[in-house]
Amino acid sequence: xxxxxxxxxxxxxxxxxxxxxxxxxxxxxxxxxxxxxxxxxxxxxxxxxxxxxxxxxxxxxxxxxxxxxxxxxxxxxxxxxxxxxxxxxxxxxxxxxxxxxxxxxxxxxxxxxxxxxxxxxxxxxxxxxxxxxxxxxxxxxxxxxxxxxxxxxxxxxxxxxxxxxxxxxxxxxxxxxxxxxxxxxxxxxxxxxxxxxxxxxxxxxxxxxxxxxxxxxxxxxxxxxxxxxxxxxxxxxxxxxxxxxxxxxxxxxxxxxxxxxxxxxxxxxxxxxxxxxxxxxxxxxxxxxxxxxxxxxxxxxxxxxxxxxxxxxxxxxxxxxxxxxxxxxxxxxxxxxxxxxxxxxxxxxxxxxxxxxxxxx
Length: 361
Fold this sequence. Notes:
Elements lengths: L2 E2 L1 H14 L4 H16 L10 H9 L10 E5 L3 E9 L1 H19 L1 E9 L6 H9 L2 E8 L22 E5 L7 E5 L6 H9 L9 E2 L5 E2 L3 H4 L5 E2 L5 H16 L19 E8 L6 H16 L15 H13 L1 E2 L2 H20 L12
Parallel strand pairs: 3-4
Antiparallel strand pairs: 1-12, 2-3, 4-11, 5-6, 5-11, 6-7, 8-9, 8-10
Helix pairs in contact: 1-2, 1-11, 4-5
């Protein structure tokens, strides 16, 4: 399993995206987004996604040079169109728009459509928290990617519908909740499949509703389904996210059973809240700091050393990655090196990009 420094991995991914026609600024954003997810331990949203993104560009489903368009705007809201650009690029710009609105109106709410896979939502809410704002993000797959069975069902009817909330604190890291409403993100199953590792019980059911520990059973054929986390609770939250992210954005909710798994757009709902519109930021940070310290003061359960609050373990992982580098699974690295070799040959020949290799799934 190779271990790369963050700068070396950033350079490799940036080269790949530049070679398929992505401008430098956008290539830097996409590479940085994937590496930050990888460093945080979200391997399901990290470098394993590179072949998927490359293939989407080469098939014309992602337009690397797309620009964000404001379709409609009020003092506190905006409807945005990503022009089928990279999800990490468009979602970052959309959150920046929400932050701009919040700076003047106290709150900024935006929807985003026509962008590709948005990646790790915690990146956007952490960005908001870093500016002293509360960030909220929700995403559906525009009616596609129906990996998740409803509570009590056995076949996919919803996407993994993740959400994230970021809150500024007076500590070294913000509070970051970043969860899928399924028992695990689909990308986590993909990562375990690539690593040839089993999945825990009660994450996935086979096509006939049996629990399985084989990640391959999700993909079939015939295809299985992810389960919602917490039974009816995760299911209910997923339905509401589908309505807000899919319905309100115009990307579309899940309603077609045979919708393609690989959709063309995410539906995105983003909110930024200015703390100063309610009370001084310093006072809020002091209150949240007291909350986190209170939570961590509890005696840890047997076998555990301490209580960790949301976002703490990811912050530690990112700090460790900066010091020690990032380990990449062999199968994922093989895909990356294949793409890098092809990029090198194309540059030497002065030709355009060829077909990308298949993703691990």
